[in-house]
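Changelog entry

Holo records now carry the ligand SMILES as an explicit input line rather than a separate metadata file. Below, a converted record for 2-acetamido-2-deoxy-beta-D-glucopyranose, shown in the new format.
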Amino acid sequence: MWLPLCFVVALLAVRPGGGLAGERSNDVYVVYMGAVPRRTSPNFLQESHLRLVGSILSRGKVAQSVVVQQYKHGFSGFAARLSKDEAAALRKKPGVVSVFADPVYQLHTTRSWDFLQQTDVKIDGGARPKAAASSSSAPTTVTDTIIGLLDSGIWPESPSFDDTGFGAVPSTWKGVCMAGADFNSSNCNKKLIGARYYDLGEVDGAGARSWSSSNSPRDEAGHGTHTSSTAAGNAVTGASYYGLASGTAKGGSAASRVAMYRVCSDEGCAGSAILAGFDDAIGDGVDVISVSLGASPYFSPDFSEDPIAIGSFHAVAKGVIVVCSAGNAGPEASTVVNAAPWIMTVAATTIDRAFESDVVLGGGNRSAVKGGAINFSNLDKSPKYPLITGASAKSSSVSGTDSASHCEPGTLDASKIKGKIVLCNHSQSDTSKTVKVDELKSAGAVGSILVKDAERAVTTAYLDFPVTEVTSGAAVDLHSYIASTSEPVATITPSITVTGYKPAPVVAYFSSRGPSAQTGNILKPDLAAPGVDILASWIPTSSLPAGQKQPSQFNLISGTSMACPHVAGAAATVKAWNPTWSPAAIRSAIMTTATQQNNDKAPMTTDSGTVATLFDYGAGQVNPTGALDPGLVYDLAADDYLHFLCNYGYGASQIKLITSPPAGFSCPGNASKDLISDLNYPSIAVTKLGAAASRTVTREVTNVGAQEDATYTVTVSTPAGLDVKVVPSKLHFTSTLKKLAFQVTFSSNNTTAKDAMTGSITWSDGKHTVHSPFAISN
Ligand SMILES: *[C@@H]1O[C@H](CO)[C@@H](O)[C@H](O)[C@H]1NC(C)=O
Ligand SMILES: *[C@@H]1O[C@H](CO)[C@@H](O)[C@H](O)[C@H]1NC(C)=O
Ligand SMILES: *[C@@H]1O[C@H](CO)[C@@H](O)[C@H](O)[C@H]1NC(C)=O
Ligand SMILES: *[C@@H]1O[C@H](CO)[C@@H](O)[C@H](O)[C@H]1NC(C)=O
Ligand SMILES: *[C@@H]1O[C@H](CO)[C@@H](O)[C@H](O)[C@H]1NC(C)=O
Ligand SMILES: *[C@@H]1O[C@H](CO)[C@@H](O)[C@H](O)[C@H]1NC(C)=O
Ligand SMILES: CC(=O)N[C@H]1CO[C@H](CO)[C@@H](O)[C@@H]1O
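Structure line, unchanged by the conversion:
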């Protein structure tokens, strides 16, 4: 088989270690060498990588000392500190596919650790939490829609998967409930109708990839339980995370059934298992597949080497909708993954809920400085704890105050911070919050205030240590208070839940951005959904926060992993209402009804306050109710995707790496990347328009509204310098005329526009609004 058997991809919310330790500067290059050749051992690859580097290194350098990472399981390659000349020399070597500078990798790792901070999960000897605190309520309508998730497994005892009120398992279901460790067929029911697990690969001789073996569908990471309950969990009243975010936890499609395909351990996911999961889900008869995992954007495989692209292609061709997370590598551009045009690719946004933990200052002023975090502290309400800056607590052995003001590990004098609240600058810091906080805690500090702007939309859970995060604006007050008194004191208040927070939604800092590195002629991500501080079911944990006696059945976590199942739930609901619609029609319904405004009735922004673009949120924020009645849809069939692959540049032989085209299939002679823009997608992307040029794309819409006789009129929103003509500008549908085509011509005389020129085309019959964004770039 051509497919790398141990292709490793990482869960997009649970991001375990990996990555490179220590400093990485701009001179680190990644040398990518394609799939692992057949019958090649990791040890052999490792040796051959070192030999290859050795052959091009300048005199005096040793291969072992420049290679900082090796890729030898799923794909072959390595990362090394190289000069520009050495990198150029490697580019010409046989077997080397590409060599590229990797300046962003380290930042990405640091950030994902920070904002994807999790509780320290340990399995509590199989003990189950008592369900007493929660009661699950029966769904009001039960449909036969089935959502399959490729994930880390499931905790079947969660009230989110109680089957009270559900009818018999749909007759279309052909799946199984695989028995495994601590899991047997009685763990499935009329809600959780199926569960499978896969061999996640063997441990190699060198002990690399020593994953906890997957011998059960039972979730050991929490991730799969969280995503499943977000997609289709029952409404569970009395849900909260130790009192925070309390209310009803409810999946996007609470009436749907759930099937779990465990393709991941808490350390990663095997590509071979992902493909098997897709294969089984298709055969089992699921309607929607939700995939909250993906490759690193920096090693994003081509479609022909990507198990998710391949598996989802087959699913969509068989009428199964596939929804994937866009990745957590933002906010840098072109970090979106899972961007094949047959996939629905989901970015993450905030919701209107925040967790506030304030700093109360002493000195008779006692005004509070607003901060945000989740803490389980037991500090006194009165501001009686000495407050000190990292800079003032500098260890005498450290020169300069910059690293101490950032509370970098090893820079502070323990005797100066004992019993105090330490104020740390966390701006542009390479050290993760938790590493800093752990060091402060072990040095005897009683609490900490971190100053940080970029990630303020994502709440970090510090559990039993009092920590809050404030903006640099708020920190000015703290600094002036400290300067105003010889004995500054403060306290940190317990976290409270704030709802109705404005503005929301805001595109999350971490959410991966378009344009897709694979083709700019398809706009990605497709849309956005809530993915920050999402409350959903969790596995019981033995490491309880201080003062807590029972593990929480719910957890608050963040990631595009959390956004994806929201859309999977919405898609399942659209499918339940319209069982005959194709995956493309359902995606179109969801995209053309998405919204672009926040709860301040202003254009949606990113976490840094700038207006969000199409490359942040695609068509906008999912609007599940609107998607049920879209009026018109942009439909696509499997043939259209084959033509996409032709235009993408694949020949018939490469297409066969992905799928089996119909007999006699050949790519048209006029195939070209430009024609990708003609794929009947609900958004439009054109690249390389060029100065003073124009481009015409075609689209076809199908009337799916209740009125057969309907007239739609177009309105265009376009930036200066771009002229957009839609012909015809009126579409008249009748009982026999259900599909109508139109052409859009983009003309520009803006030779200076470096960024994409963006706007939208909206068809309306007065009742429905069918909104399609476009991005046109030179
Ligand atoms: C499944 O496991 C439970 C508890 O471990 C046990 O009571 C039950 O009999 C088992 N069911 C089957 C079908 O083996
Ligand atoms: C915090 O650190 C950043 C980055 O080093 C720096 O630009 C900023 O001035 C610092 N803020 C304060 C208040 O020292
Ligand atoms: C009290 O502190 C706040 C900052 O927290 C500051 O804006 C205000 O001026 C202070 N008031 C007095 C009287 O010091
Ligand atoms: C490309 O060629 C096919 C026939 O192979 C034809 O149907 C199609 O219209 C052509 N497209 C363009 C844009 O020329
Ligand atoms: C081109 O530029 C001229 C003036 O510079 C402007 O009037 C015209 O509308 C522009 N054309 C388009 C298509 O925007
Ligand atoms: C060209 O596009 C840029 C944005 O990329 C815009 O700022 C500028 O106003 C446009 N120029 C004209 C002549 O429309
Ligand atoms: C979220 C949370 O549990 N916050 C806690 C912070 O600390 C106070 C004091 O111990 C608790 O009352 C809060 O519940």
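Spot-checked after migration. Residues 19-101 form a domain with the Alpha-Beta Plaits fold (CATH 3.30.70.80). The pocket of 2-acetamido-2-deoxy-beta-D-glucopyranose (ligand 1) is lined by residues 184-186 (CB under 6 Å).
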